[in-house]
Structure formats: C-alpha cells, structure tokens
Amino acid sequence: MNAISTDKAPLAIGPYVQGVSFGDMVITSGQLPINPETKVMPDDVAEQTSQSLQNALAIISAWGLEASNIVKTTVFVKDLNDFAKVNEAYEQFFVSQNAPFPARSCVEVARLPMDAKVEIEVIAVRG
Parallel, antiparallel, or unpaired for β 118-125 and 19-22? Predict the structure, then answer.
C-alpha cells in the first residue's frame, strides 16, 4: 500500500492521507469541497459537489488514473433535501469527463467536517 499526496487537492485535516494505492486500486479519503488553491469552500451545495469530485479526481490523477477509472463513489450529504442539486452536479461531472457513471451510495449524515454540505470518496481501478 502506498500513500498518495498531491497539492492539487486539499491536504488531509487529520491523521490520514488523501488516498492510497493498493495494487491496481486507488481509494481516496473523503474529499471535502475545499478549493486547494484558495483554501475556500463554496456555499452552494452543487458547487461543493463539483469541488469534492474535482479533488477526488486530482488524487486519482496523481496515480495516473482518470474519471473513467472510478468504479464506486460514496456521497455524504448534510441534507437529503439537496439530493436533486447534488445529483445534477454529480451527473454533469461524469458527463463532462466523458466517463461512465460508477456504482454509488448516497447517505445523509448529521454533520461533516468544517460544516461542509457534501463529502465524497471514490474507489478507482486501473484497467
């Protein structure tokens, strides 16, 4: 297992790594919607969704993978009333990357770090 680190995604805010590679698989930690350049989190839930996915993409890209290699996502949302907005941004991300939709779980949680509205983790596989 190898730790993955890139300055194109936010640094971990605790005792964990941005992602790990294990054979042909890359697993990211949950990605908050923090812009790695500005260190700012957008307020809008759709923008948060897009930023979280961009952060996850940056991590898997550091290992030579792309959005089409993502086979599973887990989406954590603060409020399932935002599901339609999250879904739309999620769809736009994969369509814009010309990537197939991966398997997905989406769950509402009581609270996310830094009071984010969305956090997304991905599993990507080479091949």
Answer: unpaired
**In degrees rounded to 5, what are phi and psi of residue 47?**
-65, -35
Q: What is the DSSP letter of 37?
A: T
Q: Which residues pair with 123 in a beta bridge?
A: 27, 72
* Catalytic residue, candidates 20, 106, 112, 125: 106
Q: Which amino acid is at 91?
A: E
CATH number of the domain within which 117 lies: 3.30.1330.40
Picking from 53, 105, 116, 33, the residue whose alpha carbon sits closest to that of residue 74 is 105
Of 16, 20, 15, 25, whose CA–CA distance to 4 is shortest?
20
Structural domain total, the chain: 1
Tokens of 66: 């792309």
Active site residue 106: yes
Question: Which tens digit of pLDDT belongs to each residue from 56-101?
Answer: 999 999 999 999 999 999 999 999 999 999 999 999 999 999 999 9
Range of the domain at 56: 2-125
CA-based end-to-end distance of the chain: 18
